[in-house]
Write a structure and sequence with these properties.
Chain A is α+β, with helices and mostly antiparallel strands. In chain A, strand 17 and strand 18 form a beta hairpin. The longest helix of chain B has 32 residues, at 215-246. In chain B, strands 1-2 form a two-stranded antiparallel ribbon. Chain B folds into two domains: 15-49, no CATH class; 82-246, Ferritin. Classes of the chains: A alpha+beta, B mainly alpha. Chains A and B meet through helix 1, helix 4, helix 5, strand 6 and strand 10 of A and helix 1, helix 3, strand 1, helix 4 and helix 6 of B. Strand 6 of chain A pairs parallel with strand 1 of chain B, so a sheet runs across the interface.
Chain lengths: 679, 247
């Protein structure tokens, strides 16, 4: 390709400088008064989108008018108009206390801070900013953006593993309020999705700068062509040292992780999922989801990006399964490439499309083939996996983990990109997410439809998925905040289905989906945008509950640590009951069945819930609380405990007469605890 | 001075004391200067103790030992490839023609499906043009201002080749002169050709040594590839539907 002639270049530079002048004027225009409503009417928004504003590529983009029949997010929510800032943004929350932000270490930030750096000067000149000024942090972020983004989280014991496009940071979280960085492991390649199993750490790599040796230099560009040969297509440079796939590290010495294996795949690994087969103690498995380009066969033998009718061995339309011998991880290798999109009747590998299944018009199919999974969540206790696979949500039987078989597939006319999935603890529901706009865009503006970029909650019954409802962050966000549904985990509150979820710069939202048809927000935390005039990529990538706290991986700012606080929607007893569930390891996409001990604090949580749902009359609630308190105060005196046990039969009776199945389960579970309680 | 607010940056770099403290702590450069800053003081004892100070390590290739890097290590990125810049500049020109094509829809056809598709293509490609302009400007690279359909001259004075898949001036002229079903057909075949060209551009990008290593361009090109593949399928189905109607 030719470079644009130099005259055009000069015009372009002039235009940028001019544009920045335009935006300067725009910036001085007074904005709407705080609290004033929000979504400008379509006509006004069209007028505001004057040609000048259009020409400045840094100007924020207002949403187009809502499509007919759609509603948007709430612009009266306190989260809509928080003040901007990288480290001093306004914050607001409900039922969540922010304990700590650990900023990204210097080794994971761009080293350009010297204003004398010629690169900086050139950049500032082009942006119309006077010379000699220090480069604002924000601009560094714009330049670096994704290259140092934090990504997904995994946990083991007292250690938190924070993935990053540039490597992994390992934190000691023994005391969450005083968490501290232990190890920064430099090993670029994006997006750094992490899992951990015993002494092994797994990491996804998909980008072409990934190197077997974890080098940061990537690969050099071709030298300029010789004179007269500019137009010749040059031989693409396969690189034996390039790595795209799943890395395996030994973390026995947490301060000195050692790379044991690097399993190459054709499309690299965008995400991966650890699969532990309950019947196989010697191996673990990794499901690899690749979403990127297929590399050349010259670089990795057998890789093909042909259509399936042209090449039955195409690297599209499949996932990969890596088998990892736990005692010999260096022998890890791809053992299967399941064709999870196959049409079992015709054998076509591209057997799934994203046509609407619960839309109005079923015959109006959109024949875009799903050729990739973005993320897969396995629930080995149920022998099931839920895959979020670009145009479809799919359900897989994984009892034989090397050969997953598709049981069901769904699609959704409002879904743009099926991104992730999680099961309810009892396996009767699946929550999918739609990453409309890819996570880089502002998609929670007042005019962005509430059904787009949302969670979709499905019932799961007899291996069939049926749609129940959507849940989207109820608060509107500004047009400089990238925001869409993203990664979350269950909070182990007994008796309820509760998920904490990251929404990028929309913050953290805690959703109760016990009633699949009516999900409700019960807690949240949010910051203002990094910047108020242009979208600087940031926000929470993942928000997960681990042994009593919520951890958020903030793309630009660092690691956030939170705790829940009681509100009318969630009591202290319910929070304390959630804290009774302790796990040794957490890889959210390898979902484990939650079980609660027969402790009185769990009983108290159920009593609170029965009071909230009015499943029992007030006097019985009081009697239960008194009896529990007496047992506790007496240090589980036999007589007091016997009194508790004596209350179980009447609870069982109430269970069989309960108005809702949820209350019946709570009453039954409460009765079970009271029969054999512990303190 | 209002100058510094112009691009949405704060008036001054926001080096609040706590940030300074963190930087100082992290690099262990000046613990004494940091004394008195509460956060720093609290951390210092822990971090100056070699047993608990964080380490920066870089693993080696599989089976090779890892090395410890100095605490002052900063992040570095691969050199930007000329192929990245050319891809972005070329794709801006390429996208601009798609926007120009979709602008004809309103006056040239009543086909509802085509109008919906055109609106989607126009909106996403306009959005992406902005993204590409930002990418180039933020990196101090020039934004192509070449107009679609205008054949610029290359260094030797010959007309410069269009980006892959772009419609020739003759094809654009034919599209402008068509109405109704004929327009629909030319638009769909033209846009399929156009999108297939974008796929070639993405493939060429990733096949060029040292290219596509920037996280933003990697994500953008990957996403553009996925989106345009999907839209090609949609357009092929529309063509088939139109063909079966005419039978």
């Amino acid at each position: 390709m030719n470079r644009v002639p130099s005259f055009a270049l000069r015009v372009a530079v002039a235009a940028i400088i001019l544009c920045s002048g335009v935006s300067r004027i725009a910036a001085q225009r007074p904005g709407p008064a705080p609290g004033q409503a929000v979504a400008p009417p379509p006509a006004a928004s069209a007028a505001a989108k004057a040609p000048d504003a259009d020409d400045n590529p840094f100007a924020a983009q207002p949403a187009p008018p809502l499509p007919p029949g759609m509603t948007g997010s709430d612009a009266n929510d306190p989260r809509y108009k928080l003040t901007p800032g990288l480290y001093d943004a306004g914050e607001t929350s409900l039922g969540i206390k922010h304990l700590l932000l650990l900023k990204k270490p210097d080794s994971f930030q761009l080293g350009v801070t010297d204003p004398a750096d010629p690169k900086v000067q050139k950049l500032l000149g082009q942006l119309g900013i006077g010379g000699g000024m220090k480069l604002p942090k924000e601009l560094q972020l714009v330049i670096a953006e994704l290259a140092f983004s934090n990504s997904d989280l995994a946990f083991e014991g007292n250690h938190l593993f924070l993935g990053n496009f540039y490597g992994v940071n390992i934190y000691d979280i023994a005391n969450p309020a005083q968490a501290a960085l232990v190890t920064s492991m430099v090993c670029p390649g994006g997006q750094g999705d992490v899992s951990v199993y015993k002494n092994l750490l797994f990491m996804s790599v998909e980008m072409p700068n990934g190197r077997l040796d974890c080098g940061t230099q990537g690969f050099p560009p071709e030298p300029p062509p010789a004179a007269g040969h500019e137009k010749e297509r040059r031989k693409p440079a396969a690189q034996a040292e390039r790595f795209r796939g799943v890395r395996i590290f030994d973390i026995t010495d947490i301060k000195n992780p050692k790379q044991m294996a690097a399993v190459q795949t054709c499309r690299g690994s965008h995400t991966h999922t650890l699969v532990v087969d309950p019947n196989d103690k010697d191996n673990v498995y990794i499901y690899v989801s690749g979403t990127s380009f297929v590399r050349q066969p010259e670089e990795l033998a057998g890789c093909s990006d042909e259509a399936p009718d042209k090449d039955p061995n195409t690297a599209l339309f499949r996932i990969e399964v890596i088998k990892v011998p736990v005692a010999a991880p260096q022998e890890a290798k791809v053992v299967a490439s399941p064709r999870v999109f196959i049409d079992p009747r015709t054998g076509a590998l591209n057997g799934l499309s994203n046509g609407g299944s619960h839309g109005k018009n079923d015959e109006e199919t959109k024949p875009s083939d799903s050729n990739q999974c973005h993320d897969i969540t396995v629930y080995s206790a149920l022998g099931l996996a839920a895959g979020a696979c670009s145009g479809n949500g799919i359900l897989l039987d994984i009892k034989d983990p090397v050969h997953p078989k598709r049981l069901d597939a769904v699609n959704d006319p409002n879904y743009s990109y099926w991104h992730s999935a999680s099961f309810s603890n009892d396996g009767t529901k699946v929550v999918f997410t739609d990453e409309w706009g890819g996570g880089l865009g502002a998609r929670c503006r007042p005019n962005d439809p509430s059904k787009w970029g949302a969670d979709a909650i499905f019932h799961l019954h007899d291996d069939k998925l049926t749609f129940a409802s959507y849940y989207k962050l109820p608060a509107a966000q500004s047009d400089t905040e990238n925001c869409v549904a993203h990664n979350g985990s269950l909070i182990p509150v007994p008796g309820r289905d509760i998920e904490v979820q990251a929404w990028y710069q929309g913050g953290v939202s805690v959703m109760d989906f016990s009633d699949a048809a009516n999900p409700k927000e019960i807690a949240y935390f949010d910051r203002g945008p990094i910047d108020s005039k242009m979208l600087v990529l940031g926000g929470e990538w993942s928000a997960y509950w681990y042994n009593g706290n919520i951890y958020g991986s903030e793309i630009a700012r660092g690691l956030d640590i939170f705790e829940l606080t009681p509100t009318q929607f969630l009591t202290q007893n319910e929070i304390d009951a959630a804290k009774t569930v302790r796990v040794d390891v957490l890889n959210v996409q390898n979902q484990q069945k939650l079980e609660w001990p027969a402790q009185l604090v769990v009983a108290k949580a159920y009593v609170d819930q029965l009071e909230r749902s009015q499943a029992l009359p007030a006097e019985r609630i009081t009697a239960l609380r008194t009896a529990i308190q007496n047992a506790e105060a007496s240090h589980m005196n036999k007589g007091k405990v016997a009194k508790l046990s004596g209350m179980a039969p009447s609870l069982e009776e109430s269970a069989s007469a309960a108005k809702s199945p949820a209350d019946a389960k709570r009453l039954h579970a409460l009765a079970e605890i009271l029969k054999h309680p512990s303190a | 001075m209002e100058e510094e607010v112009s691009l949405g940056f704060p008036r001054k770099p926001q080096l609040c004391p706590s940030m300074v403290a963190v930087v100082l702590c992290g690099t262990l450069l000046a613990a004494s200067t940091a004394a008195g800053l509460g956060f720093c003081a609290a951390r210092r004892a822990q971090q100056t103790d070699p047993a608990t100070a964080p380490v920066v390590v870089q693993p080696g290739a599989p089976g090779k030992p890892s090395k410890t890097l100095p605490p002052s290590t900063k992040g570095t990125l691969p050199a930007r490839s000329p192929a990245d810049v050319e891809f972005m500049q070329g794709m801006i020109m390429h996208h601009a023609q798609a926007v120009e094509m979709t602008a004809l829809i309103a006056s040239h056809t009543d086909n509802k499906d085509l109008r919906m598709l055109g609106a989607k293509i126009s909106s996403s490609q306009s959005d992406e043009i902005k993204f590409m302009q930002r990418w180039l400007a933020a990196r101090g690279e020039e934004v192509s201002m070449a107009m679609p359909g205008m054949s610029d001259m290359d260094a030797s004075g010959k007309p410069m080749a269009l980006m892959p898949g772009m419609l020739t001036p003759e094809q654009m002229e034919a599209l402008r002169n068509a109405k109704g079903a004929e327009f629909d057909h030319l638009f769909l075949t033209g846009m399929i050709q156009h999108h297939n060209g974008a796929l070639i551009m993405v493939k060429d990008l990733f096949n060029a040594a040292g290219a596509g290593q920037d996280a933003d361009i990697f994500n953008f090109a990957t996403d553009a590839d996925n989106t345009q593949r999907a839209e090609i399928k949609i357009m092929q189905a529309m063509l088939e539907k139109n063909a079966s109607k005419e039978k």
